[in-house]
């Protein structure tokens, strides 16, 4: 089936003649041919967004908030349909797809507070007859370049606040699962968003580079792998745009000897294997402190992991996780697993020959558990982004925290302990952006902000929460003076200060 772009409130056929295959990861079948936009198609969509933006930006924030309110209702109305479309292209289970939508929806709910968020500041009588006020105005047209792993949540985290601030957005979704972003754009129009304010243009590097080089685009938000985040940040900022680029992760969960081992093991299985490990907040490294803790942890993990049910999303509610996104991703993950074996890690749960009857062409990877992983191994250094959990045994708390601190990524981390002192020390010292204490995936809620440190983030303002309103708006400060404070001839009447 030939797919489209979504431009000016309607599905539009691509004209470049270039297409990318969109798969059903469970069956391996191609279910769509996605057009890859040319430079001129992208430039045209950007120009149309620029034409639509001024009227939207001039609308008062309360009216824009009403569009957000309507969007919440429409997403809830269409939740099942959206979740089905999401699972069919991404492969994640239906409950996971609904979670993906729900976490995006929560940011739209947060955006209903736009009038409050965009309120300015005012200083009365800054001088004689002088008042000073600051206002937050939209940037104009902004771009969002998004990853495959949360095809609803990631676009909504960016499009919601960008629109609420009065911008128009050009979204370049992942070429793996673009249907839900386009369905969301359609719903925004139904919610009352003027056409052209939310363009979805599909494409690859050509489309992205056009966004980065466009004089019209004022801000760029990117979420994806670290090398591309770094590239996009450099090119966007070199072109004078503001940019926030979120990259990859390798999240460590430290298990102290006093931790509740059942809780820690359950948390690691959910956080390590949920959504087939294709989450930037997935826990991919468990660091038990002490040999005895490590033995107990591996004993608790092994039977839990062996019980996980890997199947297509259509197989019922007890499916733990589905396929990974592409055959390429599957081969890369299996290659990394082999490197772990070759480099001397102990493969405690081995599903290298995993295959699902009836779905032999699907991109399924069974769950894997490695023990005795060391920091020099590729499976430790690399973000695997698959259902693989590595246990790195640490001799002490200092060694464990040192591992997480020395890793190049700094997205999320967690500690399992009953000791308040240790937990507090960990939260205080760790050089990582999001920290869980007896919480495995510490994803902040919509009214806080989400972002990593080190090579997990380039830029300064985080996703959602107050930072997103700062990122998508700019401050203008006005100083005004009126005649009653001024003597004839234009001099200050200093007596007026008395
Ligand atoms: P990716 O970097 O391959 O692709 C992301 C986007 O960049 C896509 O839209 C893609 O089309 C585009 N792109 C790819 N190569 C490009 C190039 N050479 N030039 C210009 N654009 C290019 O990432 P992905 O595989 O879709 O997503 C998985 C990654 O995203 C993981 O590393 C994961 O950790 C990360 N992620 C991070 C966060 C976060 O908040 N830090 C959240 C979700 C995902």
From TrEMBL:
Q: Enumerate the InterPro entries for this protein.
A: Ald_DH/histidinol_DH (IPR016161), Ald_DH_C (IPR016163), Ald_DH_CS_CYS (IPR016160), Ald_DH_N (IPR016162), Aldehyde_DH_dom (IPR015590), MeMal-semiAld_DH (IPR010061)
> Keywords assigned by UniProt?
NAD, Oxidoreductase
Ranges for domain Aldehyde dehydrogenase: 11-478
One GO BP: L-valine catabolic process
Citing just one GO molecular function, the answer is: methylmalonate-semialdehyde dehydrogenase (acylating, NAD) activity
Enzyme Commission numbers on file: 1.2.1.27
Q: Which PROSITE patterns match?
A: ALDEHYDE_DEHYDR_CYS
Organism's domain of life? Bacteria
Query: What PANTHER family does the database record attribute to this sequence?
Result: MALONATE-SEMIALDEHYDE DEHYDROGENASE
Protein name per the record: methylmalonate-semialdehyde dehydrogenase (CoA acylating)
> Can you name the source organism?
Roseovarius faecimaris
């Amino acid at each position: 089936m030939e797919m489209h772009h979504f431009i000016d409130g309607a599905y539009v056929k691509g004209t470049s003649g270039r297409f990318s295959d969109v798969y059903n990861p469970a069956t391996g079948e191609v279910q769509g041919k996605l057009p890859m936009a040319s430079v001129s198609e992208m430039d045209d969509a950007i120009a149309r967004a620029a034409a639509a933006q001024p009227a939207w930006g001039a609308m008062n924030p309360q009216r824009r908030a009403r569009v957000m309110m309507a969007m919440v209702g429409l997403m809830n109305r269409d939740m099942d349909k959206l979740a089905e479309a999401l699972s069919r292209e991404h492969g994640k289970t239906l409950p996971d797809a609904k979670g993906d939508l729900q976490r995006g929806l929560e940011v739209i709910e947060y955006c209903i507070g736009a009038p409050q968020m965009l309120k300015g500041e005012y200083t009365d009588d800054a001088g004689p007859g002088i008042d000073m006020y600051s206002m937050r105005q939209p940037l104009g047209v902004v771009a969002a370049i998004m990853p495959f792993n949360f095809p609803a949540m990631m676009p909504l985290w960016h499009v919601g606040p960008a629109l609420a601030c009065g911008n128009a957005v050009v979204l370049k979704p992942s070429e793996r699962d673009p249907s839900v972003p386009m369905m969301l754009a359609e719903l925004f129009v139904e919610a009352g968003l003027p056409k052209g304010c939310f363009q979805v243009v599909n494409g690859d590097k050509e489309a992205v580079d056009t966004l980065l080089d466009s004089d019209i685009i004022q801000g760029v938000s990117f979420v994806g792998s670290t090398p591309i985040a770094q590239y996009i940040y450099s090119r966007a900022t070199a072109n004078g745009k503001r940019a926030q680029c979120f990259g990859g992760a390798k999240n460590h969960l430290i298990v102290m000897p006093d931790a509740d081992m059942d809780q820690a093991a359950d948390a690691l299985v959910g956080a390590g294997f949920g959504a087939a490990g294709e989450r930037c907040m997935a826990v991919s490294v468990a660091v038990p402190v002490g040999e005895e803790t490590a033995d107990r942890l591996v004993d608790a993990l092994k039977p839990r992991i062996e019980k996980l049910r890997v199947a297509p999303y259509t197989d019922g509610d007890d499916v733990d996780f589905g396929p990974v996104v592409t055959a390429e991703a599957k081969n890369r993950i299996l290659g990394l697993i082999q490197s772990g074996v070759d480099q001397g890690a102990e493969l405690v749960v081995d599903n290298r020959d995993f295959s699902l009857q009836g779905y032999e062409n699907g991109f399924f990877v069974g769950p894997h558990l490695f023990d005795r992983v060391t920091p020099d191994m590729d499976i430790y250094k690399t973000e695997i982004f698959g259902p693989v959990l590595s246990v790195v045994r640490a001799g002490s708390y200092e060694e464990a925290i040192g591992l997480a601190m020395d890793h190049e990524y700094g997205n999320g981390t967690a500690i399992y302990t009953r000791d308040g002192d240790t937990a507090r020390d960990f939260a205080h010292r760790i050089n990582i952006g999001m920290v869980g204490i007896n919480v495995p995936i510490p994803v902040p809620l919509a009214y806080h902000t989400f972002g990593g440190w080190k090579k997990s983030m380039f830029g300064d303002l985080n996703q959602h929460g107050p930072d997103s309103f700062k990122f998508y708006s700019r401050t203008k400060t006005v100083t005004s003076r009126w005649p009653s404070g001024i003597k004839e001839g234009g001099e200050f009447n200093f007596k007026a200060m008395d």
